Amino acid sequence: MSGILNWFTPLPPARNGIADYSALLLHEMVQKRDCVVYSHDAGAGLPPEIAICDPVQAHRHLQPDSAILHQIGNNGGHVFVLKALRAFSGVTSLHDLSLLYLYELASGSLEEILGRMTGPTGKMGQVYAMHWKEQRIKTAANYVLFDTIGEVLALSSRVIVHSEYARKKISAIHGSMARDKIDVIPHFAPKLKAEGHSAARKELGISADELIILTSGFATRAKRFDWLIEALDALAEAGLAFRWIHAGEERVSEFDLSSEIARRPSLHGRCSVSGYVSEEMLDAYISAADIVVNLRFPSVGESSGTLARAFSAGRCCVVSDTAAYAEIPRDVVVHVPVFSTVAALVRALEGLLKSADLRESFGERASLFARTELSIDSVAARYLASVDEAGAAGRTKRPSRGKLQPVPPSVPTLRRSEFQMSQPGSNDGLADFINQKPGAFEALLWFDGPDHFARSVVEVPAFLRATVGPHVTVEGLHFVAHPDGGAFGLTVEGRSFAAAGSHR
Amino acid sequence: MNTAPDISTSMTKSVALSGGASPTILDAIEAILGKATFVDMTFPRCAFSFMSDRETSLAFLPGPDQRRIDFLNSFRQHGGRHPVGVLPPTAMTGGFAGLCRSPQPGRALVCVGGSIDLLKLLASSRGDEPLNVLLPVPVNAAPEMLPSRLGLSSFNLHCFVEAGDADRLWLLYCSGALAGNGQQAPDMAMQQSLPEARTILPVQSGKQVIAARQFIHDGGYQAEGDDSYSWLWTGPERCFRMIVPRPMDQFPARLEVSIIRAESRQNLDNICVHLDGRVVPFVFDRWSENSGKIVVNVDKCADYTVLGLVIPKLDTDKNNGRVIGVCVDKLILLPD
Predict the structure, then answer these.
(1) Considering the entire predicted model, what is its pTM?
(2) A chain contacts of residue B238, beta-carbon cutoff 8 Å
(3) Which partner for A161 in A9, A115, A166, A415 could form a disulfide, CB atoms 3.0-4.6 Å apart?
(4) Most A CBs within 10 Å: which of B65, B66, B67, B86, as the mutation test of the A interface?
(5) How far apart are CA B164 and CA A155, in angstroms?
């Protein structure tokens, strides 16, 4: 298949790792296929033959058979991409295995977010959602437990992830519907914007004989600086010479890196934190380093751009033996276990600091890995294969859902039903009616009379709360009299934000 | 039913409605109907709206594409003061009935329509209200026959207006009495000067200046100032979009946007211009550190025209805390 590949993605100068990823990949992709990018960003530095367009006006330019690629990550820079996916189906490159934060930013109401949490995880999701809604308890665990990627999986013709770990995790949670449309394409290793080891050291003012251990990016809790500091403290106490540079910003709310370093006298004068660095400066730091440490636990399946750059630079890398990192060949990086990590890290770093040959050996294999499996040419070709496969499948199945079929104007529909509340607390059918379909509803609950209603309230307090899921808003309650007298009705008006088909 | 006039004869006639300046379509309509209020249903082409300033409201038929509806619905007219009317598909008749009620007593209502389908809908919903329709039709479409073909025997054809591209005519069909609702009588002298109540008017083809208070835009604040001078700030979104009107369906060849103020020089150095959603080259004629004029060439296209300005970095207005981009006071449409 040929033609134009239409991208929806953030671009530089947005400070967004996926914007940089897309820009680099576009440079390669445009040599293989014409590309148009729909983005709110200017796309500085892109080849001039790539047209940059207003995503809000994409409907004026795209055709039913247009090839479309969405780059989706878990931050606010991708809200417009999510909206575009809802309008135009296509291949989605999924950079994060949880999109809960994206949905928090993109949703109009809390119930809409909770509706996505309570889908595939069933009761557990309902409990966490209820905690969030009623007690304002939102923990970091939410972002691990509830991926909220069901809509993206359903709307995408194919889904690109960057590791086998990601494919397996999505398949386990979302089943065969998702599994059958996933392609694994690793994060490519970009060409570095740095002159080489010696030149980078000169630029950064690092002497030629220093042994540099490098970490990078936001200093988050999951990067396990606590383990690294403990290991480096032990190595310093043992008299090994090294210097540790963190090329990135601190995130004190997660881990107070500077304070933790200051608490270790043995590390004084051996460690520095650079603060935010540009892409060019990060490349210089990587080129100047001897060992790049990239720990992650717990991992949510992410891949690391720094690691890919370190491979390109032929650096010796140390990673956690977990999730996507565990898939990197054993002769390319040094894996340290996620249990008893500090002891293993001490032994690994000691060996690497003492042996230039060992560092060079891992570095050479990393470089080879970057030039073959992770080459940008290979990654671009695999992207196009995925796009073309989606296009071929679309041609055989058309008209496909989500393509540029005319969408009928939305006509608000109100679901109505009546229920006889025979037993206190019995809500057969009522919970399903309220919870399972999205949209406005009106449920009329009939009681035998006021006494029956009062008895029900006493025997099963808050029965309505127990019936209505956290993803439902109750917007009105009205008492009504039965036309024949006697019976006593309660009308419940509300709206369900159930993700269609996800509630069981 | 009307007797079909001799179009060829009519098209050769021209008339001066008033001494001095060339007559405009507004002059002709007012000569026939008196003071009028307009609903321009050619949105988003906006063939008529800015020509009569605030007396015109915009509305559009939604069509089947929800994405198009959502996009067009994001625009606000009259410098951002009012939404654009969307005629609800489920209550078409009611929607028209609401729009077609003349907002000011004594003024005739003229609906500027874009299609024969629209005329049908208008005719079916007008009830007893006098209704006038300004409708573009192809020159070769035997326009006098249209009302009868549509079963609109009570409509009279009153005015030809020759459009710039010479492929179509703008026809005024009127129902009921000629003189609007009576309070503001038409200029009978002018009316009588119209040969057989049909005339050909040259469409203004020169420079058109659209003031900020007339903008139809999205991504900007309401226009400030008054009828004599107005301006507006873009924001709080980085992308400011405005509909470029096509007076009587003529295409401008060039657009000029006057930016009278930017809080930072960078916003003028790195501003990006879209035409119909695609980045286009432009010339920036700088007047000062913080002001200048954007000049964009326009290619003829079949659809409507949207000009977009993407502001690199938004600033905060020190006076009121608004998040702002650049300040614009007018859009100028220039012919070939």
Answers:
(1) 0.81
(2) 40
(3) A166
(4) B67
(5) 46
